[in-house]
Amino acid sequence: MKNKVGTFSGEDSSIPNYVKNLLQRIGKIKILYLTERRKEIGKEEADRLLSLKVKRGGNEILKNIQETVAALLGVHIDAFESSPSSPTSQASAEMDVDNFLVEVNGSGIKEALRLLLDVEFEHSDILLVEEPEIHLHPAIETSMMRYLKRISSDCQVFLTTHSTNFLDTAEMNNVYLVTKPNSTQIQQLDVGEAEAKIPQELGIRLSSLFMFDRLIFVEGQSDEDAIREWASVLGINLSQANVGFIHMGGARNFAHFATEATLEFLTKRQVKMWFLIDRDEKEDYEIIKMQKMLGNNAKIKVLKKREIENYLICSRAIKIFIAYKKKLISNLSQESPT
Questions:
Q1: Domain identity same for 142 and 260
Q2: Is 224 part of a structural domain of the chain?
Q3: Is the pTM for the entire model greater than 0.85?
Q4: N or C: which end of the chain has fewer CB within 10 A?
Q5: What is the pLDDT of residue 183?
């Protein structure tokens, strides 16, 4: 360099090795940036899925992608080689969604597949997504946010959104409010600020909080996780059933969520409701009091101590048993029927 620079070891006229190493590490970071206007899904994705069928180890990757899509969207995807339209034309890859060409599906499914396949194919270190909720059903928005939270253990994820469903599923200490009163301002929010500022900025109405046909009020995130795991084992798709979860932050907040006004509002919308709580040290008269508060508007299920954890353990055990059973049947398939 023409001019010396200050380094940890003093002035130097060459680029220090630690700077070179740092720049090399930065250069290797893989970034996936999905803008608000995303390319429509089609032939390119079909080609990549089809190539997995003939690539060593590709079938396992394809199976994982299919399972992820089925769990989030409730559909099965696959790719096949199309028949040539004429003797001189070449065959091309086609993607199917539940045995229909992907092109004839609705914009919601195609937008969701666009995001899912990009993430599953690229395996980036940093993921940037603008407006992931575009064209998505509210229930799928919630499933998509849960998926993005899950992959964030291996990938740094940044989202910009106007969706209350994404906000409800996010960790509030990771939410930043971006406003433009005179100039762009970015402010990290805590739970208390969020209650006052987010509805004001986004114009949230009561209707945006009640987009589900069925609501389950649970004490916390672990209860929801256990129910979703159990539903997965039973082959029940909660997203397709339009089931939503509301976290009460513990049974102590039961009265706050079970107010007469809230129950009547939801009942008029024909929303079915269940309250799922742990018994803990509650007396019988406390349970009866809760049931009377709900009346005929909602049902309450009081779990025995650690019952929700037992559901989760059982669901995992059943998955192991099913896998073992399949393996056993495969091994015995060549032997006698007995």
A1: no
A2: yes
A3: no
A4: C
A5: 84
